[in-house]
Amino acid sequence: MTQRKSHLDTPAIALLIVCCAFWGLQQILIKATVGTIPPLWQATLRFAAATTLLLLWSRWRGVALFTRDGTLGVGLLAGLLFAAEFICIYLGLRDTHASRLTVFLYSAPFVVALLLPRFVHAERLRGLQWLGLGIAFLAVALAFSEGFLHDGTQHPAPNQLRGDALALAAGLFWGLTTLVIRGSRMATLSAEKTLFYQLAVSAAVSPLASLALGEAWSFDYPAWAWASLALQAGVGAFASYLVWMWMLRHYPATQLSSFTFLTPLCALLAGVLLLGETLTLQLALALVGVTLGIVLVNRKA
C-alpha cells in the first residue's frame, strides 16, 4: 500500500518547479509550431510518440500495463477527459496568446478543490487555503477581463475570447481528470498505467478530431518543428506527466494543483522573451495574485 503524505515536501516542490518551468515553455512550443503543423495533427504526432516512449519505458522497467484490475472504464474516462483538455489547448492557441491561455488553463485547481473533497475527505482545505484559492481565482478573473476591456490602445488577437474560453474549458477538463484519478481505483495504479490510459486514448482521439476539422496531414516539416514536437512528446507528454502521475499517487492533489499556478509565471516570461508578447498590467497583477495563492494554500496548519 502506497503511503500518502499530508504535505508537499522538498523533493515534491523541487519536482513541481522543474515541471512547471517546462509546462510554461510547452505552451510556447505549441504556439510557435501551430502555424507550421496543424494543431490536432500536431497533438496526434505528440501523443503517438509519447505513448511509444511509455510502452518502451514500461517494458524496460517491468511495469504491467494490460493486466485486468477493474480500472478499464474509469481509465478510459480519464483518457477522454485528458484528450478533451489538449484538444482545447491546441485549438485555443490558434486564437489567444500562450501566456493568456496558460493563466486560464490553471483554473483547474478550483475544480479540484471544489469537487475532490466530496470523494476524498483528506483533501479538504482550511479557511486560509480557501482564501488563497479565492485570491488566485480573482487574479484569473482580472486577467480574463482584459479580453472584454479594449480601449483602442491594445490589439487583442482575432477570436481571442474564443481562445480564452477554450483555455478555461481545458482547465475544467484537467480538473475533472485529476478528480477521476484521485477519487477512483486509479489512485492505486502505477504512474505508468495511469498515464498510459491518458496518452493512448489521446493518441486515438486526436487524429479523428484532426480529420473532422479537415486538417492536412504531412511529415514534411522543418527541423525546428520536429525539435518542438520531440520536446513536447519526450519531456512534456512522457517525462513530466509521468512525474505528475507519480506525485498524484503520493501527495494531496489539492496542494499539487494549487502549486502548479507557478506555470503561468514561467509561460509569461517565456512568451515575453521568446514570442515578443506584451506584458500587460492585468496579466502582471494576475500572476502576483496566483503566486500569493500558492503560498496560502500550501501553508501548514
What does this structure look like?
Belongs to the EamA transporter family. It is a multi-pass membrane protein. This is EamA domain-containing protein. The chain crosses the membrane at residues 12-34, 40-58, 70-92, 98-116, 128-145, 165-183, 195-217, 223-244, 256-275, 281-298. Residues 12-144, 162-298 form the EamA domain. The protein is built from 12 helices and no strands. Helix content is 71%, strand content 0%. The longest helix is centred in the last third of the chain and has 28 residues, at 223-250. It is mainly α. Helix 2 (39-61) crosses helix 9. It has one domain. The two termini are 26 Å apart.
Summary tags:
301 residues; mainly alpha
Write the layout of secondary structure elements.
Blueprint lengths: L9 H24 L5 H23 L10 H21 L5 H8 L2 H8 L11 H19 L14 H23 L8 H22 L10 H28 L2 H7 L2 H13 L6 H17 L4
Helix pairs in contact: 1-4, 1-9, 1-11, 2-3, 2-8, 2-9, 3-7, 3-8, 4-7, 4-11, 5-7, 5-10, 6-12, 8-9, 11-12
Number of domains: 1
Poorly predicted runs of 5 or more residues: 148-153
Q: Tell me the Rg in angstroms.
A: 19 Å
Give the helices and strands as they follow along the chain.
Answer: HHHHHHHHHHHH
Characterize the overall form: globular
N→C terminal distance: 26 Å
Number of strands: 0
InterPro entries: AA-Vitamin_Transporters (IPR050638), EamA_dom (IPR000620), EmrE-like (IPR037185)
Pfam families: EamA
GO cellular component, one term: membrane
Subcellular location: Membrane
